[in-house]
Write a structure and sequence with these properties.
heterodimer; A: alpha/beta; TIM Barrel; 7-stranded parallel beta sheet; globular; B: alpha+beta; Alpha-Beta Plaits; 4-stranded antiparallel beta sheet; 31% helix
Amino acid sequence: MKNTFDFVMDDLIEKYSIEDLEETFTKLNIKNIYVFREISKKEDLEKDFILPKSKILKLKKAYLLKEPSLAHFYKKKELFLVTSQSLKNNTVISTSKNIPFLYNPLSDKLIFDEQNARSCFQHKVKVIFNYNLLRDKPLQNKYLKQNLFIVNLLKIHLVDFTFASFAKTKEDLVSRDILFSLLKNFDLEESFILKILSKGMVDNKW
Amino acid sequence: MVKLKKKLNVIRPTLRHKKIYFKLEFTKEYSNNLFSLFLKNYQNIFGLFSLVNANITLMKSTKNTAIVRINKDYKDSFLTSIFYLKQDLGLVYVTKQVSTLKSLD
């Protein structure tokens, strides 16, 4: 697999040395890493964070906004995602012209339907899933069931989507081979899986 | 008089299951029975019939590594089952996937 990527949280970069991370990500076959800082208030947007330098990995800064309302105040050039996790947020984000990525459309109950999928297609909003939610009990089965349904909806309505780790510790990371095999259980073709796991899904540079 | 068979015929190559070997490395040391962990976890996710067809065999193992043999058609299912062993094995690296045991060395 070429040009692979992953989304990780800044906690991971702070916990381990750059040499350790270089070895880990090389073994996992991941080259492009987007490091996310979580933004819950408007004031957090003014604070900057610095990434360590690496010759092997391509590290980039990115921001994870907890509320759609924060998107109005976002003026930076770096990539940003907006967290959903509720019916209201799903509708707001999927109908927004200024928000490029919807993060986590899963919850205790199903909150993403066909109308949301159509809106995402119309407004070119991409959907990002966190695959670690499928591993953590006790809501593991609920999330998996919703995930299978939503992926099918997105496929039918030609909405771009992808999966990432949002890792805070090394154990949250997964090898690209294992992720590829996991996604085959979602009824996706091999060529399609290679496409969604490549960096072009994020930056539109295929 | 019917002659009784004393030996089973050699199974011809086209009928034999093609196998694949994985070399796995994990960050957490697992001191218990690794083989039963793989089997129970796989059965939990894919069921009894799939487990029997997959024919999982643990060739060698240490506290941090394992060499596993599996039927080639069930390669993706096995890797998917490894996805759910985060609490037991931590981060799992799939260092090699080869079709012969010799190529692992």
